[in-house]
Each structure stands twice: as structure tokens, then as C-alpha cells.
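About this split. The held-out portion is used to measure sequence recovery: a designer receives only the C-alpha cells and must propose an amino acid at every position. Recovery is the fraction of positions where the proposal matches the reference. Here is one held-out target exactly as it appears in the evaluation file.
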């Protein structure tokens, strides 16, 4: 199972961490792993290249992390979009992905 944890603070700091393997299918054929990887990498690259946030990211084996010292409003919008995708995957594949947003501190629009 992939465990994804999204932590934010009221001052705009962000930590996203994903660990583990989905186990939906064999390596190279796992659609859950591929979907999560695509979303995590898109968030990291978009924060870096689109909104020019001060972001550090790492993708190694079954682990991924994204850290930002603060996010602009555009960065927060990207994060919310990322969460929509992650929650959709979690809903469709609850045995393969767990998304923890208990430490998500920003007010979420539409909640």
C-alpha cells in the first residue's frame, strides 16, 4: 500500500510524503503506482516550474517527498488539485492507497 501524508501549516509550509508500493499489479504494470507517481511528480515540477516556489523534492524507489517553505495562492491551488486526484485514486483503490490529510491546516474551499 502507498501511504501519502500531506502536512501544511498556516504560514504556508508544505510537506508531502509518499511511501510504499501499491501492490495492485506487478512492477511496471501497476496502474495505481503509475497514477500516484504522475500526480506527485506533476505537483513537484509544477510548483518549481510554473509557480516558481522554493521547493525541494526527491523521488527514490518507493518513496517521494516534496517540501516547500511557503506556497503562493497559485501553489495552494496546485496542491488542492493534487489532493482531488489523490482522493479520487484512494476512493477507487482503497486497498492500495491511503491519503492522510489530518495535518492539512489550510481552509479548503468548498468544504
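Reference sequence for scoring:
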Amino acid at each position: 500500500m502507498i501511504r501519502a501524508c500531506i502536512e501544511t501549516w498556516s504560514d504556508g509550509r508544505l510537506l508531502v510524503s509518499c511511501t510504499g508500493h501499491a501492490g495492485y499489479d506487478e512492477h511496471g504494470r501497476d496502474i495505481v503506482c503509475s497514477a500516484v507517481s504522475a500526480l506527485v511528480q506533476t505537483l513537484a515540477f509544477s510548483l518549481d516550474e510554473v509557480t516558481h516556489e522554493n521547493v525541494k523534492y526527491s523521488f527514490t524507489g518507493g518513496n517521494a517527498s516534496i517540501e516547500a517553505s511557503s506556497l503562493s495562492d497559485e501553489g495552494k491551488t496546485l496542491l488542492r488539485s493534487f489532493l482531488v486526484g489523490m482522493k479520487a485514486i484512494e476512493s477507487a483503490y482503497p486497498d492500495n492507497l491511503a491519503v492522510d490529510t489530518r495535518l492539512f491546516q489550510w481552509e479548503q474551499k468548498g468544504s
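Annotator remark: The longest strand covers residues 2-8.
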